[in-house]
């Protein structure tokens, strides 16, 4: 792989974008594929994972002025489950076409919670996403895109939890954070069982390979109810629905989180049940932030299921808050 990385550093991509040579032991761009003028796929080598990770990247139409960066994390099945992920399941490309912001979305990280796992998993491989997203990747993106150096982060479902603990754990790296339909309580029974459902039932991995057994301090370190004070100073947006059928729970909007096959009954019953749990978790974290005097924009009372039509809506609703966190116009 290192030989391939070195060779790629000496050639240009299909679309003529040069990739400079780089130290093979540091994070660096290996290739860039320009799908359109604004939608690129940037491949970045991660030393922590010893892998090249593909990123969907949107750049603003006007690149004469440095723009901030919004990191958009995907759900559990991105790249595996059909019609799953921001770039497959939403109109994110069109929505951000006229926005003065870079958008960066990893294609990998399936069922990983974008965490640093303590052990390689036979099914899910090596996961050191916390290191990649907070230490390795941002300097590479800043240099490659000429950004302003200001960042925010958003996630949905699995990555809603990730977006909160990554924002809390990385100092001032991310100025704003948006969490849609997540359960960022990792130490209580509902949160733990939800994570087990994602990692083991759906991902076929072993949850103990993430943070060890449940008495390992890493579980408490990533519980955002227990660590809500670490979000102080961030611009925060939290959303989840009640789980009751909502305006997108109809045959024209069957978009449950990428699971195939599925139908409207799955979206209403399964997706509704999941959203009940994430709604409970999100309301608890919102209440804890209020107790601590930490402001947050919340959207928690709308009916609806755990599905992509709602997260596309969340993206729109959260954008003014995220834009303000990065100092750009909505």
UniProtKB/TrEMBL annotation:
**Protein biosynthesis recorded as keyword:** no
Q: Superkingdom, according to UniProt?
A: Bacteria
The alphabetical list of record keywords is: Hydrolase
What InterPro entries does UniProt report for this protein, alphabetically?
Answer: AB_hydrolase_fold, Esterase-like, Mycobacterial_A85_antigen
Per the UniProt record, the source organism is Williamsia limnetica
Q: Which SUPFAM superfamilies match?
A: alpha/beta-Hydrolases
- What is the name of this protein? S-formylglutathione hydrolase FrmB
Q: Name one GO molecular function term.
A: hydrolase activity
Enumerate the PANTHER family for this protein. Answer: DIACYLGLYCEROL ACYLTRANSFERASE_MYCOLYLTRANSFERASE AG85A (PTHR48098:SF1), ENTEROCHELIN ESTERASE-RELATED (PTHR48098)
Pfam families, per the entry: Esterase (PF00756)
């Amino acid at each position: 792989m290192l030989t391939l990385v070195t060779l790629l550093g000496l050639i240009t991509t299909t679309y003529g974008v040069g990739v400079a040579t780089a130290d093979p032991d540091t994070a660096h761009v290996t290739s860039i594929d320009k799908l359109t003028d604004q939608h690129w796929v940037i491949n970045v080598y991660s030393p922590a994972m010893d892998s090249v990770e593909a990123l969907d990247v949107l750049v603003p139409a006007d690149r004469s002025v440095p723009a901030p960066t919004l990191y958009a994390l995907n759900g559990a099945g991105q790249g595996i489950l059909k019609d799953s992920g921001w770039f497959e399941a939403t109109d994110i490309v069109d929505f951000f076409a006229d926005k003065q912001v870079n958008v960066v979305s990893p294609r990998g990280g399936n069922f990983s919670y974008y965490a640093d796992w303590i052990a390689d998993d036979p099914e899910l491989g090596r996961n050191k996403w916390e290191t990649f997203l907070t230490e390795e990747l941002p300097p590479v993106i800043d240099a490659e895109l000429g950004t302003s150096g200001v960042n925010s982060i958003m996630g949905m479902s699995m990555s809603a939890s990730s977006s909160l603990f990554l924002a809390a754990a990385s100092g001032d790296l991310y100025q704003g954070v948006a969490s849609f339909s997540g359960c960022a309580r990792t130490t209580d029974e509902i949160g733990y069982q939800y994570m087990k459902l994602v990692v083991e039932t759906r991902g076929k991995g072993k949850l103990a390979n993430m943070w060890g057994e449940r008495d390992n301090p890493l579980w408490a370190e990533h519980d955002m109810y227990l660590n809500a004070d670490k979000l102080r100073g961030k611009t925060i947006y939290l959303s989840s629905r009640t789980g009751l059928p909502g305006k997108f729970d109809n045959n024209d909007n069957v978009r449950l989180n990428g699971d195939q096959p599925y139908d409207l009954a799955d979206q209403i019953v399964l997706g509704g049940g999941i959203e009940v749990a994430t709604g409970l978790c999100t309301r608890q974290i919102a209440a804890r932030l209020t107790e601590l005097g930490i402001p947050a924009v919340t959207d928690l009372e709308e009916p609806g299921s755990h599905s992509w039509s709602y997260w596309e809506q969340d993206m729109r609703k959260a954008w003014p808050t995220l834009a303000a966190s990065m100092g750009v116009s909505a």
